[in-house]
Every structure is written in structure tokens, then in C-alpha cells.
Design brief:
α1 (about 10-20) crosses α4 (about 80-100). The strands form 2 sheets. Strands 1-9-6-11-4-3-2 form a 7-stranded antiparallel sheet. Strands 5-10-7-8 form a 4-stranded antiparallel sheet, with no helix packed on it. It has one domain (about 10-200): q2cbj1_9rhob like domain (Jelly Rolls). The protein has 4 helices and 11 strands; from the N terminus they run αβαβαβαββββββββ. β7 (about 155) and β8 form a beta hairpin. By secondary structure, the chain is of the alpha+beta class. The structure holds 2-oxoglutaric acid and fe (ii) ion (FE2). Fe (ii) ion (FE2) binds near residues 124, 126 and 185. Keywords: Dioxygenase, Iron, Metal-binding, Oxidoreductase, Vitamin C. Its cofactor is L-ascorbate. GO terms for molecular function: ferrous iron binding; L-ascorbic acid binding; peptidyl-proline dioxygenase activity.
Length: about 210
């Protein structure tokens, strides 16, 4: 991959302002096109074996799980060059946001997700107050030429409400950020294969930290 054109300081200012003002931000594009392309190639080349049916929390009950979400996921790891390039970009993002908002974001985890035709993810929150150290959710979409009728929209609800405040088509390169504990959201049923990377910035978990 050729040298990456990193997001500008002005872009990070814009994101930090949006998070501070309303708690979320939708960007038509954040990352350089060559990185988006490489990630798309990678996710399309992962086969069924690489993906694993995603679970919800500690819930092992397949029936319940199946009623709530139908995506398949695979974690990004540093030993893959393309995954690492993305994770490095998110490390830069983390520092840029910490410098502006003092959020104390400590690390980041992310998985590729594939929604086969018919798949969805019902309304949920990614983190419950005091139960998780996930504080900021990101989603990067990797679907060229998505059409409204393909479904698969991300619906973001107002905190503690049934009102949809944002409808996002999973367009190629689009990047969404929201406060994990604040915003219920769902993935409407997708009628096409839908690819994305969902990620979470986390706070330092005192239970997992080494004693110093
Ligand atoms: O892909 C999306 O639009 C959102 C996925 C999601 O909510 C999740 O994985 O927790
Ligand atoms: Fe979610």
C-alpha cells in the first residue's frame, strides 16, 4: 500500500466537537481511499471459516441470539498487515480524541462483520453503564454502490427513546462514531451482503490492569 494520507487536524477537531455537542458523528469518509480499498478486499476474501457467528454478551442461548443478531464476525489482529494498518489509524484517532476531549481512551478492539442477505441486528446498546469499559463505538462501512432498497441501514436512536435520530446507509468509506452507553441502535434487515468493521475504544479496566 502506498503512503497513507492521514485525517487532518481539522477533521479530528470536527469529530471531537460533534462528540462533545451531540455524542455522535457520521462522516461520509474518514480514512484514505487506498486503506478503505485494502480493507474491502480483505473482508471479501475472508471465507466462512474465518467468520464466526457473533454472540451477544455472555448469552449462549442460540435461539435468543438468533432472534437478536444474525451477523458473522472476525476480530482484527496485529499480525495481519492490513488489519494492523487500520488498528494503527485507530490508535492515531484515539490519541487525537484524547488530546481534545480527555476521554482517557486506553485501547481499541475491532471486528469485521458480514451480514448475509436477511441478516439484521435488533435495537441494542453496546455497553451498559458500569458493566463494560467500552465507551466509544466506531463503524466503518465497506459496501460500494449501496442502494436504499438494499436495506441494512444503521438506525441511531435518541438516548433512552424510541425516536430514530439518524439513518445511515452503509456506504463505502462512511465512518460512524457514537458514545457506546448512550445510543441505542440497530441494523435494519439487509437484502445484500453487507460488510463493515465495528470497533470499540475502551477505558483501562482496573480489574485487568497489572498492579503498579
Ligand atoms: O454495522 C453496524 O451498522 C452496527 C453494528 C453494531 O451495532 C454492533 O456490531 O454492535
Ligand atoms: Fe452495536
Amino acid at each position: 500500500m502506498k503512503a497513507l494520507v492521514h485525517p487532518t487536524e481539522a477533521t479530528y477537531d470536527h469529530i471531537a466537537d460533534a462528540i462533545a455537542d451531540k455524542g455522535y458523528c457520521v462522516l461520509p469518509q474518514l480514512l484514505p481511499a487506498n486503506l478503505n480499498n485494502a480493507l474491502q478486499q480483505r473482508v471479501m476474501n475472508l471465507d466462512d471459516e474465518d467468520f464466526r457467528r457473533a454472540g451477544i454478551g455472555r448469552e449462549q442461548d442460540f435461539q435468543l441470539n438468533n432472534a437478536i443478531r444474525r451477523d458473522e464476525t472476525r476480530w482484527l489482529t496485529l499480525d495481519n498487515k492490513i488489519d494492523k494498518t487500520y488498528l494503527d489509524q485507530m490508535a492515531e484517532f484515539r490519541l487525537a480524541i484524547n488530546r481534545r476531549l480527555f476521554m482517557g481512551l486506553f485501547d481499541y478492539e475491532a471486528h469485521y462483520a458480514h451480514y448475509a442477505p436477511g441478516a439484521f441486528y435488533k435495537k441494542h446498546v453496546d455497553a451498559f453503564k458500569g458493566e463494560s469499559n467500552r465507551v466509544l463505538t466506531t463503524v466503518l462501512y465497506l459496501n460500494p454502490e449501496w442502494r436504499e432498497e438494499d436495506g441494512g441501514q444503521l438506525l441511531i436512536y435518541a438516548p433512552g427513546s424510541d425516536a430514530v435520530i439518524e439513518t445511515v446507509n452503509p456506504n463505502f468509506g462512511c465512518f460512524v462514531i457514537f458514545l457506546s452507553e448512550q445510543f441505542p441502535h440497530e441494523v435494519a434487515k439487509s437484502y445484500r451482503d453487507r460488510y463493515s468493521i465495528a470497533g470499540w475504544f475502551r477505558l483501562l479496566d482496573p480489574l485487568q490492569a497489572p498492579l503498579i
